[in-house]
Amino acid sequence: MGRIVQKFGGTSVGSVERIQNAAKRIINEVNNGNEVVVVVSAMGKTTDELVRLAGEISKNPSKREMDMLLTTGEQVTIALLTMALHQEGYKALSLTGWQAGIQTENNHSNARILDIDSERINGLLKDGNIVVVAGFQGLIPETNDIATLGRGGSDTTAVALAAVLKADRCDIYTDVTGVYTTDPRAVKTARKIPSISYDEMLEMANLGAGVLHPRAVEFAKNYSIVLEVRSSMSDERGTLVEEEATMEQNLMVRGLAFEGNITKITVTNMPNEINALSDLFTILASNGINVDIIIQNVMNQEKTNISFSIDSSILSDTQEVLAENQDKLGFESISYEGNLAKVSIVGSGMISNPGVAAMMFKALSDQDVMIKMVSTSEIKVSTVVKQEDMIKSIETLHDTFELDARVPVQK
Ligand code: ADP
Ligand code: ASP
Ligand code: MG
C-alpha cells in the first residue's frame, strides 16, 4: 500500500463539477489501495476576489485580518470536496491547516512552515479516512493566530505534508499539463518539459514561473520528494520535478521565466566609502525591503552611484526608508525607473557552456531590446528590460535557444 499526497489548485476545484472530478481522481488512488491525503486551494479566483473586497474597505488592511479573510477560501473547498467523497460512499474528513498540525513562523501573509504535528492525520489515515487539508494556511503557536504561506502557498502545504507523512508520491494537479519551457499562456510555442531538476525548478519558480510555489520546490529538494505537475483535466503524464532531470542533448537552457512590475532605483553620489554598500543595504533589509539585482558604479574616488531593483509594489515603502536615511547615508538624490520586467534563462547546462549569456544579450540587442540590469548565477541569467519588451524578449529567447525544437524524451 502506498501513501500519496494529491494537491488540487484553484481551477481544478473551481466549480461543483470540478470538485466532483477531483473526487474521482482521489477515489481512483484509494481504489488502487493507497492512503490519500489531499490538499486544496480556494475555488477558482476566490482568493483574488477576497483581496479585492478587502481593498474596498481599506488601502492598508491589517495583515492579521487579511490572513483571517483569505484562509476562508480554502475552508470552503475542503468541506465541499469532503462532502463529494462522502457522496461517493468514501470515508473522508476535512481539516483546516491548524487542525492538521501545521505550525508556522510569526509572519502574517508570508509565513514559512516550521513544523507539522502529523499525529492526527496519521490516526485518520489508519482509520481508513481520506484526509482533506486546507492549503496555504497554518497556525502561529506563540499567538494562536492563523497565518497564510504567501500566494500560491498550497503547493507548499502539499509538499511539506508529503515530507512529514513520508509519502511515496506528491502529485500537483493544476490547469496546465506540466511545467513548460515558459508560461504556455504567454508564449504559444512553449513546450512541456518531461522532467526538470529541483535546482532548475527552484530558479524558474523564484524568477516568476508561477506554476509552483518556490518553497514547495525547496521542501521537495530538501526531502527528496519527486513531484509530478499535471493536469486535473486529462490523463496525460505531467512533468517530473526530481534530483536529476532527464538528459537532453546540447541542453544549455531548459526554460525561461519572466515577471513584470519591477522598478529600478538609483541612489546617486553616495560617499565612496568602504561601508557604503553595507550601510545602504543593511538599512533597507532592516526595514523589510526586499532588493533583487544590485549594480554599483563608482563615479570617481569620492562618489559612487548604486542601483537596485525592487518589486514596484514596495516602491513607496522604499522611498520612505531612503528619505528618512538620506542624511545618514549621505547620498545626493534618488532616481527611479518603473515599468520594467525581469526576463531570465535557466538551465544547468550553462555551467559547462561559456557564452550563453553573450547569446542572450545578442538575441535581445538584435531585437532592439535595451538591457537595463543583469544578474547571473551558475544556472541562470536574468536581465531587466522595459515591461513593453518582456513578451517579445521571451519569444526571441525561446527561438534563440531552440526551446520548441527539442525532441521529447520518452519516459
Ligand atoms: P494552481 O491554481 O493550480 O496552483 P497556478 O495558476 O498557481 O495554478 O499555476 C498554473 C499557472 O502557472 C498556469 O496556468 C500558467 O499560466 C502559469 N505558468 C507560469 N510559468 C509556467 C511554466 N513554465 N509552465 C507551466 N505553467 C506556467
Ligand atoms: N488560494 C491561494 C492563492 O490563490 C493559495 C493557492 O492557491 O495556492 O494564492
Ligand atoms: Mg498555484
UniProtKB/TrEMBL annotation:
Gene3D superfamilies reported in the protein's UniProt record: Acetylglutamate kinase-like, VC0802-like
GO process annotations (BP): diaminopimelate biosynthetic process; homoserine biosynthetic process; lysine biosynthetic process via diaminopimelate; threonine biosynthetic process
InterPro entries referenced in this protein's UniProt entry, alphabetically: AceGlu_kinase-like_sf, ACT-like_dom_sf, ACT_Aspartokinase, ACT_dom, AKii-LysC-BS, Asp/Glu/Uridylate_kinase, Asp_kin_monofn, Asp_kinase
Gene Ontology MF, one: aspartate kinase activity
Keyword ATP-binding: yes
Residues involved in substrate binding: 47, 74
One GO CC term on file: cytosol
Residues noted as binding ATP in the record, renumbered to the chain: 7-10, 174-175, 180, 185
UniProt keyword annotation of Amino-acid biosynthesis present: yes
Catalytic activity: L-aspartate + ATP = 4-phospho-L-aspartate + ADP
The ACT domain, residue ranges: 265-348
Pfam family, one: AA_kinase
UniProt record similarity statement: Belongs to the aspartokinase family.
Reported function: Catalyzes the phosphorylation of the beta-carboxyl group of aspartic acid with ATP to yield 4-phospho-L-aspartate, which is involved in the branched biosynthetic pathway leading to the biosynthesis of amino acids threonine, isoleucine and methionine.
Protein name as annotated: Aspartokinase
Annotated source species: Fictibacillus arsenicus
